[in-house]
Amino acid sequence: MRRLVSRKKALTLVKELDAFPKVPESYVETTASGGTVSLIAFTAMALLAFLEFFVYRDTWMQYEYEVDKDFSSKLRINIDITVAMRCQFVGADVLDLAETMVASDGLHYEPVTFDLSPQQRLWHRTLLMIQDRLREEHSLQDVIFKTVLKGSPTALPPREDSPSQSPAACRIHGHIYVNKVAGNFHITVGKAIPHPRGHAHLAALVSHDTYNFSHRIDHLSFGEEIPGIINPLDGTEKVCTDHNQMFQYFITIVPTKLNTYQISADTNQYSVTERERVINHAVGSHGVSGIFMKYDISSLMVKVTEQHMPLWRFLVRLCGIIGGIFSTTGMIHGMVGFLVDVVCCRFQLGVYKPREASQHIKSNTENPST
């Protein structure tokens, strides 16, 4: 018996703590305006919840910076450059900051035609348009990171027709591994030969009239080669105005760790500035004709991670949307109803009369003698 009494007391206490009291339906009054506001509120809730679901599905890229502590590994350079000279007249190699000549055994020399076919030219123009958009809107790089494996390949498509002329250009492509220090990758006249004080090129047997360092960079990247990533120099094309001309590219490499839902890789990003000039010793413009890419490696490393909204945050935002709209529309409906009631129903001339005054006037009309 005592247990039953204690249970009833506990149940009564729980009922008193009810924060959501129920109102009998007989006490509830429904109106057309309330139904209209409810319909608008439910429509807004459904629309915002639908849009919030797309926000939940979307991802964003988070950038973190830290000191790069890996100096012992090798740096891979991926190259695909076409030079408007015959392959026997040009040579490519790397000389690092310690004056160490790096063997270019991983590079291949392929005789090709410098002019592109119509399909290749269309691909090249499309790549240049993408490069222009990337320079104006840097946020597009995040889209490229997220769709790295879905994007189209950035390599030059194969030629669909047979060239009518004999190949007079040289395509230098492949990859080489260098020390992770600043260096100079260059393409100049003559094949490279080792030298006790550095290196040299056999350029004495090549006539100056054959010098033509017009070139097209189809691809240049550092680190692991990732399909779909567009690098700053991809699609660059330069045409010589003189036989003795030097093209210089000053590159700053930033080590990058890329972690997305599509791929996880250690690669590198880079920025570049360009300079070109004609070699003329008579006017003090000294140097060697060729293509020189001087690169330096940043001491900072960038970690790019694809982030996603957690489920609990999506549910909290969803509850905020539903509760906020429900409360706001209720307050607005009550406020508008009050204003309409005050302005239109109580203070119009001849409409608002106190109840006592109206009864007194009615009684006087019925008993005029009094």
From TrEMBL:
<protein>
    <recommendedName>
        <fullName>Endoplasmic reticulum-Golgi intermediate compartment protein</fullName>
    </recommendedName>
</protein>
<dbReference type="GO" id="GO:0006890">
    <property type="term" value="P:retrograde vesicle-mediated transport, Golgi to endoplasmic reticulum"/>
</dbReference>
<keyword id="KW-0812">Transmembrane</keyword>
<dbReference type="GO" id="GO:0005789">
    <property type="term" value="C:endoplasmic reticulum membrane"/>
</dbReference>
<dbReference type="GO" id="GO:0000139">
    <property type="term" value="C:Golgi membrane"/>
</dbReference>
<dbReference type="Pfam" id="PF13850">
    <property type="entry name" value="ERGIC_N"/>
</dbReference>
<keyword id="KW-0472">Membrane</keyword>
<feature type="transmembrane region" description="Helical">
    <location>
        <begin position="314"/>
        <end position="340"/>
    </location>
</feature>
<dbReference type="GO" id="GO:0030134">
    <property type="term" value="C:COPII-coated ER to Golgi transport vesicle"/>
</dbReference>
<dbReference type="InterPro" id="IPR039542">
    <property type="entry name" value="Erv_N"/>
</dbReference>
<dbReference type="Pfam" id="PF07970">
    <property type="entry name" value="COPIIcoated_ERV"/>
</dbReference>
<keyword id="KW-1133">Transmembrane helix</keyword>
<dbReference type="GO" id="GO:0033116">
    <property type="term" value="C:endoplasmic reticulum-Golgi intermediate compartment membrane"/>
</dbReference>
<keyword id="KW-0333">Golgi apparatus</keyword>
<dbReference type="GO" id="GO:0006888">
    <property type="term" value="P:endoplasmic reticulum to Golgi vesicle-mediated transport"/>
</dbReference>
<comment type="similarity">
    <text>Belongs to the ERGIC family.</text>
</comment>
<feature type="domain" description="Endoplasmic reticulum vesicle transporter C-terminal">
    <location>
        <begin position="164"/>
        <end position="332"/>
    </location>
</feature>
<comment type="function">
    <text>Plays a role in transport between endoplasmic reticulum and Golgi.</text>
</comment>
<feature type="domain" description="Endoplasmic reticulum vesicle transporter N-terminal">
    <location>
        <begin position="14"/>
        <end position="99"/>
    </location>
</feature>
<dbReference type="InterPro" id="IPR012936">
    <property type="entry name" value="Erv_C"/>
</dbReference>
<keyword id="KW-0813">Transport</keyword>
<keyword id="KW-0256">Endoplasmic reticulum</keyword>
<dbReference type="InterPro" id="IPR045888">
    <property type="entry name" value="Erv"/>
</dbReference>
<keyword id="KW-0931">ER-Golgi transport</keyword>
<feature type="transmembrane region" description="Helical">
    <location>
        <begin position="36"/>
        <end position="56"/>
    </location>
</feature>
